TrEMBL record:
Compositional bias ranges of the Basic residues kind: 51-61
Protein name listed in UniProt: Transposase IS3/IS911 family protein
Residue span of region Disordered: 50-81
InterPro entries linked to this entry: InsJ-like_HTH (IPR055247), IS150/IS1296_orfA-like (IPR052057), Trp_repressor/repl_initiator (IPR010921), WH-like_DNA-bd_sf (IPR036388)
């Protein structure tokens, strides 16, 4: 977030977006415009990166596995059904 504020401060000194993108090595000028828009609408907190995409799925519980040698005959029958 500090880097974005530094870029925006550079612009407040009367510099152009083109100068800022060259000085700070930002390839896309639209990125700087987006930072400006966010800062003007929500302040510095709006510049904090937000999570994107889906949340990870919960892993299904692992089935309890018992080797066949340690299972009772009843447990083996239940497993087959």
């Amino acid at each position: 977030m500090a880097f974005k504020l530094e870029v925006l401060d550079f612009l407040d000194q009367g510099r152009s977006i083109r100068e800022a993108s060259t000085r700070f090595n930002i390839p896309s000028r639209s990125t700087i415009r987006e930072w400006q828009r966010r800062y003007e609408s929500g302040g510095a907190d709006a510049l904090i990166p937000r999570l994107r995409g889906r949340r990870p799925m919960k892993k299904p519980p692992k089935p309890s596995y018992r080797p066949a040698g340690k299972m009772t005959s009843k447990e083996m029958e239940e497993e087959l059904m």
